[in-house]
Specification:
390 residues, alpha+beta, 4-stranded mixed β-sheet
């Protein structure tokens, strides 16, 4: 039914290399992702083979150092790649973002020996990563986590349960935050845990509203033994490492949200220009035209916000507040845009014959992951008014 084919987003990219990179991504999307996205999501299929292709194409290590197999790309380029991937299939875009998040600790805080040993395989060797911070009783209050790591000679023994782990049970490596000392944020340490470590087991994947192709599961650590040379950073530094990773990860979520919203807008515009009522396309009616205009404006504002935060990061300037703003605004925008897309399609939008209903279900999780939007408001307010008084 769509009468108007979606136009590619006109991107402001800093180099000819980055323009070629986006062209490569669009080619992979057209050939390998878009044709099977709806069918595989409906079937709950995770495209592991696709992530192997993305790794071989250099797309799983874009913002990291080329000395270790990364792409040496600035965040403003990496995030626009994420947006393109998420617009084609959120499971893929979010999966790349989570993998990048899982690499952050080692790339930013590991020793040179650790980086040389592990990063090439993590960034370009076909591996897939996951990030383990949340627990069943420790979500927004991440500093209260209970998973413990106890030193035993030259090893650490990890015991506990992690929850809401994207790629849980299928990842090749996990960046794990565990308690090694006192209560609170100062007693937490980061570890790099192999996916096949003895004693590490995944629960059955959660049954979710959306993103059915992306496995989310609890992970049980039953005396998992990890050598001390897989500890990342100093003992007690883990919470600071986690927060640093989340600042960057929130920009990834923001970019994915705008990609999803763009896909919903493209679907709505195509439908509205092709669907006729009262003898003319429904896109002729002012009420609907205004709705489309509002959707497009939210998307452009969100894209500008996440790119502004990315450019701060690329310049080495503080960007934590801007990352929280981008995550908050972009994911709220995606939720509203996808709701409006369903409205534009009317009854058809409520059926699985069109992707609008899937976009709406998928958008909801983006307001929750990597810090709920209520937490983002707290982060922003602290930058404005200082910490809350007790």
């Amino acid at each position: 039914m769509p009468d108007r084919a979606p136009r590619p987003v006109e991107r402001q990219l800093p180099t000819e290399e980055s323009q070629d990179l986006v062209a490569l991504v669009r080619d992979i999307i057209q050939r390998e992702i878009a044709p099977r996205a709806a069918e595989e999501e409906d079937a709950g299929h995770f495209p592991r083979e696709l992530f192997t292709l993305l790794s071989a194409s250099g797309l799983l290590g874009l913002p990291y150092d080329s000395a270790h197999g990364g792409g040496d790309q600035p965040y403003e380029v990496y995030l626009q790649v994420l947006e393109e991937l998420a617009a084609a299939r959120l499971t893929v875009g979010l999966g790349v973002s989570v993998h990048s998040l899982a690499c952050h600790a080692l790339a930013g805080y590991g020793t040179k020996a650790q980086q040389a040993e592990h990063l090439p395989a993590m960034l370009g060797g076909g591996l897939l990563g996951a990030y383990c911070l949340s627990e069943p009783a420790s979500g927004s209050d991440a500093a209260s986590l209970r998973t413990k790591a106890v030193r035993d000679g030259d090893d650490w023994v990890i015991t506990g349960t992690k929850a809401w782990i994207t790629h849980g049970g299928i990842a090749d490596f996990y960046t794990v935050l565990a308690r090694t000392g006192e209560e609170g944020a100062r007693g937490i340490t980061a570890f790099l845990v192999p996916g096949d470590a003895p004693g590490l087991n995944a629960a059955p994947p959660e049954k979710k509203m959306g993103m059915k192709g992306s496995p989310t599961a609890q992970l049980h650590f039953d005396g998992v033994r990890v050598a001390d040379d897989r500890r990342i950073g100093d003992e007690g530094q883990g919470f600071a490492i986690a927060l640093s990773a989340l600042d960057s990860g929130r920009l990834g979520i923001a970019a994915c949200a705008i990609g999803l919203a763009q896909a919903a807008l493209d679907e709505a515009v195509g439908y509205a220009t092709g669907r006729r009522q009262f003898g003319r396309p429904i896109a002729d009616f002012q009420g609907l035209r205004f709705l489309l205009a509002d959707m497009a404006t939210r998307i452009e504002a969100g894209r500008a916000l996440y790119l502004a935060a990315a450019r701060l990061r690329d310049a080495g300037r503080p960007f934590s507040a801007q990352a929280a703003m981008a995550k908050l605004f972009c994911t709220d925008a995606a939720m509203q845009v996808t709701i409006d897309a369903v409205q534009v399609l009317g009854g058809y939008g409520y059926t699985a014959d069109f992707p609008a209903e899937r976009y709406m279900r998928e958008a909801k999780v983006l307001q929750i992951v990597e810090g709920t939007n209520q937490i983002q408001r707290m982060v922003i307010a602290r930058h404005l008014a200082g910490p809350e008084t007790r």
